[in-house]
Amino acid sequence: xxxxxxxxxxxxxxxxxxxxxxxxxxxxxxxxxxxxxxxxxxxxxxxxxxxxxxxxxxxxxxxxxxxxxxxxxxxxxxxxxxxxxxxxxxxxxxxxxxxxxxxxxxxxxxxxxxxxxxxxxxxxxxxxxxxxxxxxxxxxxxxxxxxxxxxxxxxxxxxxxxxxxxxxxxxxxxxxxxxxxxxxxxxxxxxxxxxxxxxxxxxxxxxxxxxxxxxxxxxxxxxxxxxxxxxxxxxxxxxxxxxxxxxxxxxxxxxxxxxxxxxxxxxxxxxxxxxxxxxxxxxxxxxx
Length: 288
What we know:
Structural class: mainly beta
Mean pLDDT: 91
CATH superfamily of the largest domain: Hexapeptide repeat proteins
Low-confidence stretches: none
Shape: globular
Number of helices: 4
Strand order of the largest sheet: 9-12-17-20-23-26-29-31-32
Radius of gyration: 21 Å
CATH topology of the largest domain: UDP N-Acetylglucosamine Acyltransferase, domain 1
Strand content: 25-35%
Number of strands: 32
CATH architecture of the largest domain: 3 Solenoid
Distance between the termini: 37 Å
């Protein structure tokens, strides 16, 4: 997580100097801001953005000393929060990241020659194959192996549009990999956009697997070769994803699930489910 110290007033001034678009500002401009964070997380002194204004109001009561960007006013305590009204909150949030964070620090990578000589990884018994590329902000716990040609911690494809012009959403998260994991050859694991991409303990990931940004994989998960997992999805503990499966963005697969070979998962599935097909459908329950 990136930390800094800046007042809401200073940040708003930066926007007014750099943008031609008009901002509507409400609330306390004196609050201190220290990080960017996801809207759904309970956090303080954060910069957040909200695209879905129909989100439940009870979340707003948890916020304190936050700068929130949204399309219209929300029911929030303006004595200890600041609100910016802007037609495209994602664009403005992205703009503030680019103005506040030194993005080059998030695009530094180790190659295999570096990795094999780093004492930290040797002490943790982490083994790397040839031609591995690893973002320097990646965290890997002990007793894991990353096989030949795998890339971990690159930015995903996050292109959006504002005023008919494209812009890229910067990735300031990282990848965290748990204990005793194996990641096969020629895999690509994207780092998180704001929060982190997470892989739990005792996971086995086959060759040629693509894992998108902000994916969350639980413990003891098995993912077979050729699988593609889109950004924002999650896979629960003890689940098995079979050869060549495709999982759409923001899909939730519960604990102890089995996804059959070549499945295309377009809907979230509950715990202990067995699914198969294109689109995948439930055909039984997995015994636990």
